[in-house]
Design goal:
This protein is of the alpha+beta class. The chain contains 14 helices and 18 strands. It has a 4-stranded antiparallel sheet, covered by helices on one side.
């Protein structure tokens, strides 16, 4: 005997599909209903997959008012696929040639936004959102059977319903009211306005309260963007050209809504996806700013009023941090080198001055002669006394991933900098060998050549680098690489608690 008990059933608003059986008369309406039911099921599957970009659909500025959208695939919030088989170019000042008469919205009849052609005229200066929406049109010609008893020639109907995409630029009027926006910081201001960086902190403070909408959709009020639109990029139109094109302000990887949507600010996948997008937005913006900078100088206060809770910047390592690592490397190298040399030349072992002075001199030479690339931490963050912490590379990864769940912050707020010890050691390695050569030059009077010292020191240093990286020695080299620095928003509450 089963323990289950049926409590009821419902068919309210259930999908309807024709029931096929032999000798049933079929009409176009039946086949159309079957088609619509299949599309509805696919849309439900699309909603389960999530909304966002699967791959491709990148947007680049070709110059002036022309954008290029790369081929790719995405899904709208309504579950409709947004598929672009080949790259296409868009001109912002030219209205779309695909007018309303050329579009049959029947295939996407649930779309709330009218899919007609764009309005003619010169665009108004301001911020715009670029979206893609699925559309369809009829093509070809198929003959119709003449009505019984009719003497008229058989008519024709469209043969195919072809799916396509329509791209729209939506004016972001709300951004006009933002304070403190200028040509230098506009891209950053626009990005964090779209991300809802400031409003999210107010929503998050409520924790388990009723979820509220935030970000770009909240700014638009849902009037111009529907569940049929896939956001691709934002840009600013001024002086007859597109400026500040930015993708990750609105572009997202697939985001699952999930059953935890009632706790979305805390547990939803959207927060993780937006944290990743926020980091990607900063990194791509920083890369563009560095490429455009005249002398390689970038000021975060000027360009990035808001920063992600953690980010990666190629900064020049300060002397104190270099010396700290260089001394440790020189110490280990020289003590091991002394053991090898003393074993090879036992008669001189008591006369060779292996001492702390030799180590500190080697570390000083290496720190002073190391050539660095990247930005100055002073010019970028606008402050001189920033403490660097040497950490394991895994710590960098952990802090970066944890930042996806933290809030953006002002670039004027306190920060902490982290750099991988192994990366600094790699940067210093060639100059450590140089320093060893200088401090051991006096050994030539014992018949110990500089070439011999280099041949003995090199494998020792390679082994040291390999042990630091936890990899086989044959996989490492002594090529200098400028380390990447991780900046992290300082935890002020922990600092205050520690001071009490």
């Amino acid at each position: 005997m089963t323990a289950s008990q049926i409590l009821g059933s419902t068919y309210e608003e259930g999908l309807k599909a024709p029931h096929y059986t032999n000798r049933r008369l079929l009409t176009a309406e039946d086949l159309h209903a079957d088609q619509q039911a299949a599309l509805a099921r696919l849309a439900l599957l699309g909603q389960a997959v999530g909304y966002g970009v699967v791959h491709g659909l990148g947007v680049e500025l070709l110059g002036g008012a022309t954008l290029r959208v790369a081929a790719g695939l995405g899904f709208t919030k309504g579950g409709q696929p947004v598929r672009l088989p080949q790259a296409t170019q868009l001109t912002f000042t030219t209205p779309s040639s695909a007018g309303a008469a050329a579009i049959d919205g029947g295939r996407f009849q649930d779309c709330a936004v009218a899919l007609g052609g764009g309005a003619a005229g010169t665009p108004v200066q301001g911020a715009y959102l670029l979206v893609a929406a699925p559309i369809s049109r009829l093509e070809g010609s198929a003959p119709l059977k003449a009505a019984a008893g009719s003497a008229a020639a058989p008519a024709c109907a469209a043969q195919w319903e072809v799916e396509g995409l329509q791209f729209r630029a939506i004016r972001l009027d709300g951004f006009d009211a933002q304070q403190g926006v200028n040509d230098t910081n506009r891209r950053n201001r626009l990005a964090h306005w779209c991300l809802g960086s400031l409003t999210f902190q107010q929503i998050e403070s409520a924790y388990l309260a009723e979820p509220q909408e935030y970000g770009l959709l909240a700014q638009l009020g849902g009037q111009d963007v529907s569940g049929c639109d896939l956001p691709l990029a934002v840009f600013y139109w001024t002086g007859g050209s597109i400026r500040d094109l930015d993708l990750w302000s609105v572009r997202r990887r697939l985001v699952q809504s999930g059953a935890l949507s009632m706790y979305a600010p805390l547990l939803g996948d959207r927060r993780t996806a937006e944290g990743q997008a926020r980091l990607a937005q900063f990194q791509s913006h920083l890369q563009a700013v560095i490429a455009d900078s005249v002398n390689g100088t970038v000021s975060a206060a000027s360009v990035f009023p808001m920063l992600p809770p953690a980010g990666l910047v190629q900064l020049q390592i300060p002397y104190g941090t270099l010396y700290q690592v260089a001394y440790r490397l020189a110490q280990r190298l020289i003590w091991q080198l002394s053991g090898v040399v003393n074993a090879m030349f036992p008669f001189f072992s008591t006369q060779i001055p292996w001492n702390e002075h030799m180590i500190s001199q080697c570390a000083q030479l290496a720190s002073e002669h190391t050539n660095q690339s990247g930005l100055s931490h002073y010019s970028f963050f606008g402050r001189e006394n920033i403490f660097y912490t040497l950490v394991d590379p895994d710590t960098i990864d952990d802090k970066l991933r944890a930042s996806w769940y933290h809030n953006a912050f002002s670039s004027s707020a306190p920060i902490d900098l982290y750099v991988a010890y192994t990366d600094v050691a790699q940067l210093l390695a060639p100059e450590i060998l140089y320093g060893v050569g200088i401090v051991t030059a006096d050994l030539s009077r014992f018949g110990i050549s500089a070439a011999l010292i280099q041949s003995l020191a090199t494998p020792i240093l390679l082994q040291e680098i390999a042990e630091l990286r936890r990899v086989p020695v044959e996989s490492v080299n002594l090529t200098p690489i400028q380390p990447i620095t991780l900046f992290v928003k300082r935890d002020l509450i922990s600092q205050i608690s520690g001071e009490q």
